[in-house]
Fold Methylcobamide:CoM methyltransferase MtaA.
Amino acid sequence: MVNLTLKERLKRTLNGKTVDKTPVLAVTQTGTKDLMSLTKYYWPDANWNPKALAQLAISAHKEIGFEAVRIPYCLTVLLEALGCEIEKGDTTRQAAVKGHPYNSRKPVPIGKVPETILSSGRIPIMIEAIKIIKDIVGDNVPIIAGSEGPVTIASGLVEVTTLMRWFIREKEGLLEYLQYGSDAMISYANALLDAGADAFVVLDPVASPELISPKDFNDLVLPIYKDISKKIKGDSILHICGDITAILPSLRESGFIGLSIEEKTDMKEAKDTLEDKIKLIGNISSAKTLLNGTYNEVYEECITALEKGTDILAPGCGLAPMTPIKNCIAMIDARNNYFKK
């Protein structure tokens, strides 16, 4: 096969075409303390400064060898633009939501997404960072952008325990919040794709079967996902945390081109269930192996994931800030040696 650029390899993989080897990258956050020390760009400033954001993101490609550049580092950018109060965090803590604009016990009318959404909060910073990354890495390195998904947005607007009650008692009102989050996210996603991103990841940890029932997922969330995957103007990937085995059959019909899974979901079982409907991404443990394991333990876990059929070798969730670089490099080495066979 003719040598592929990193972008060509990713695009071909996501679209079910033959490639020379499995891509190794992250579709979740990549900021670590080691990379901050190397670049001298640190959280929390790197969440609010487009140059710092871009350079820290690029370092995961340059220093580790991940075959894409991925931004941002948290799940608060869109929620901040929608009115949530944000705790900025520090060098070892991601930014997080600390205040919810809608905290009534029952759903109140939320209206339409503001027309000014794309100029609100840090969204202009993210758009500028994408352009900076594009100028630096060129056309051959893919750029992956991501955002909170609709269920996670709703949980930030109202607080997660309130949202869980709404799934039981306030389904009609809940749908308005899910649609609101979806509309905002689609606008944001398409703005980042227009700025130069090559793929967009919908990160929806609160949609996990560990939090909401598969029936509620099918009835309330899946139709929203189908709409999102149709309206995003580029390759769209879904990430849901935890064991998502129970909703894998539903996700076959979601319309997303890729699905990122944690180690709690068995890669082979997911592959057998999804067949060729969605390309699988993951599922190297971020919290256990990459953070606290050895190089050899990461290496062996990667070989297992490749043998079970992962289409893209990746951390199963965002990298913990204290993840050692050498453990991430083990992912590259494992893939390279696997394809020497």
Remarks:
- The chain has one domain: 6-338.
- The longest helix spans residues 171-195.
- The chain has a mean pLDDT of 97.
